Structure formats: structure tokens, C-alpha cells
User: Fold this.
Amino acid sequence: MSEPLDPDMFSACQGPPLPMRMNNKWGPKIITCLKDGKRRFSELQVPLKGITPKVLSESLRAMERDGFLTRTSYPGVPPRVEYELTELGRSTLEPMEAWCAWAEQHLAELVDARAAYDDAS
Assistant:
């Protein structure tokens, strides 16, 4: 039998939750779109098929609030806005690449496990 779990095993992780935008569908995709430099809102919409302008705006605003990107507004008609990753945002690229590599390597196993589970249910 295994040792009992330590009731304080997560005590070092107390405090506010981390501001991770990686737990939603769009955060990692937005970061990937911005990895090579500044982009305008309309440029981001092209590869982010299926995202509504409202959800894209909300996601960008949340990521700006968390310090992952900057929003720069230029005067003019119509006004021009560009988004760019901050150093904090760029720091997520390496872990994202590792996660993607893991997923690519184990995707077949994951699909098989899901199918086996669904067949047994």
C-alpha cells in the first residue's frame, strides 16, 4: 500500500492562482501568432478561425492585464492598434514548445486511451 498523501503537499502553492492564459483555447494560439513580432487585430483573426471579435478582444485584454502582451494604439482614421508579446509572454514559448512536442509524441496513445475508455463505458 502506498504512503498516505501529505495533507500539506500543496502548502507551498498557497496564494492567488497563477495568471495562466494557457488553460483556455485561445491563449496559446494568440501567443504563437505574436511570437514573430507585432500584429494587428485583423491579422490575428486570420489564423484564429472560429474566434469571435468579442472573444478575441476579451482574450487580448486579459493577456495584457496579466502582462503577457502590450497593446499600442496609434492615432489616425481608423485608429491602428498593434499587439506584441512582452518578455513575460515570450517566456511561455519554451514551455509551450515542450508541451506541443509531448502532445505530438503521445497523441496516438492519448487517442487510443480515450477510445478504450469510451468503448468500456
